[in-house]
Amino acid sequence: MSDLFSISELAHRQLFPAGEGAPIITLEEFIASAKLIYAQEVWILSKNEKNQEGVFNVPSILLSEAELDVKDNMIDISDLEVLRSLSNDSWLQNIGGMMCKCKYIKSNINQRQILCDDDSIPDDARLYFIVGNRIYLPRGAHAKKLFITYANRGLQVDDRLEIDDAIGSVIRTRLLELYAGKVGKEDVTNNENQSS
């Protein structure tokens, strides 16, 4: 399993080897770019899989669970690291938990306005729709706390974002293309590199 920090560090060292003085582009800039490239690559993966298979299944490495409070028929998700680059809010995979006795049906603002209180929805089902950092539950929830399963921006382990190796390889290549498109050379004339 790769992590975004290590990939960024490898690409940075390749372009700015030891002994060349302070690099023009900092490691922090590489990491910030890597996060953006990562989100774009997952989006491209989702589009390709949907075109080829007819459906996109969010990779399990991206999925996380959280139990969140329901207050005033709303769930605040502002503390979650959500991968929002996925289309149609597919980052939100489940509400209520896998063994939920209540069905939660995804809607959106337009559908909500068209259907309003459509009575064709079963009594044991509840609508939800997402606006910004909130999940609205116009019919309420079956409990005061709900589990949600969502796509995260990369699993955080010891301040490192673990990502799929295949996407990691693409990110490293893209970083090198973005910042130089070539391999840097080590400065062998610097005294720090000479052995005594």
Number of helices: 4
Beginning-to-end CA distance, first to last residue: 39 Å
Uncertain regions spanning at least 5 consecutive residues: none
Largest sheet: 4 strands, mixed
What is the 3D shape?
elongated
Q: How helical, in percent, are the residues?
A: 25-40%
The tally of domains stands at: 2
Structural class category: alpha+beta
List how many beta strands DSSP finds.
10
User: Averaging pLDDT over every residue, what do you get?
Assistant: 83
Strand-residue proportion: 15-25%
Strand order of the largest sheet: 3-7-6-5
Elements, N to C (H/E) = EHHEEEEHEEEEEH
Q: Roughly how many Å is the radius of gyration?
A: 22 Å
Q: Would you mind describing this structure in some detail?
A:
With 196 residues, the protein is α+β, with helices and mostly antiparallel strands. The strands form 3 sheets. The chain has a 4-stranded mixed beta sheet with strand order 3-7-6-5, with no helix packed on it. It has a 3-stranded antiparallel beta sheet with strand order 1-10-9. Strands 2-8-4 form a 3-stranded antiparallel beta sheet, with no helix packed on it. Helix content is 31%, strand content 22%. The longest helix is centred in the N-terminal third of the chain and has 27 residues, at 27-53. It starts with a strand and ends in a 17-residue tail after the last helix. The protein has 2 domains: 2-55 and 164-193, no CATH class; 60-151, no CATH class. The model has no long low-confidence stretch (mean pLDDT 83). It contains 4 helices and 10 strands; from the N terminus they run E-H-H-E-E-E-E-H-E-E-E-E-E-H.
